[in-house]
Amino acid sequence: MIDTVLFDLDGTLSDSAPGILGALRTSFAEAGLDWVDSDTARSLLGPPFWHSLPPLVGEHRLDEVVASYRRHYVEGGAMFDTTRYDGVLETLQALAERGHRLAVATSKPEPHASRIVAHLGLADFFQTICGDTLDGARNSKTLVVGEALRRLGDPDPATVLMVGDRSHDVLGAAAHGLDCAGALWGYGSAAELRAAGASRLCAKPSEVLDLLTPPD
């Protein structure tokens, strides 16, 4: 019986691609780097930059590009260029009314994630909003999920469901014995999510609610 649900943020609760890719493209330009093709850009949405950017910018340019990105994303306000997906609010409301505990588990730095969730009008639904640290100390979804579970009192894995749109969400959940429902409305593909081992695929947020509805 699932009583706790962890939600990814980017590509699951909100479409944050415009703000993320806009700020990242500017940071590439400042560093004198060529921007990437559309498929590569889409692949950058979700996974931690500590892992996804080095093949594109080089390890020696990583800190420079990330620092530039954060200036434009946070100080420049691009972080608020994000919109809630249709059906997310209603799904969270229904889950909360049923008594489910809800939390955010995102690879985005936690201070930024907290501000964005509040901007989206969703903060009151979540018992905790867990993300990476600014220095990358929780630089994998496995570490983020582990910290979220710790804050929630280390519930039985059989009672927790992760909802996310990328393979690292599925794998990070599996590392703690959790099932993960793949969010097809986000940035990952059905093939990516299936290959990672997603327990179910949901085409829209309301289907997450359907998963947790006991049969008559």
Description of the molecule:
The protein is α/β, with parallel strands linked by helices. Helices cover 45% and strands 16% of the residues. The protein is built from eleven helices and eight strands. The strands form two sheets. Strands 5-4-1-6-7-8 form a six-stranded parallel sheet, with helices on both faces. Helix 1 crosses helix 5 and helix 9 runs parallel beside helix 10. The chain starts with a strand and ends in a 5-residue tail after the last helix. The model has no long low-confidence stretch (mean pLDDT 95).
Oligomerization state: single chain
Order of helices and strands: EEHHHHHEHEHEHEHEHEH
Please report the total strand number as a whole number.
8
Specify the structural class: alpha/beta
What is the C-alpha radius of gyration, as a whole number of Å? 17 Å
Strand content: 15-25%
Question: Main beta sheet, described?
Answer: 6 strands, parallel
Instruction: Provide mean pLDDT, rounded.
Output: 95
Give unreliable regions as ranges: none
Adjacency order of strands in the biggest sheet: 5-4-1-6-7-8
Q: How many helices does DSSP assign? A: 11
The 3D shape can be described as globular
Which percent bin holds the helix content? 40-55%
Distance between the termini: 15 Å
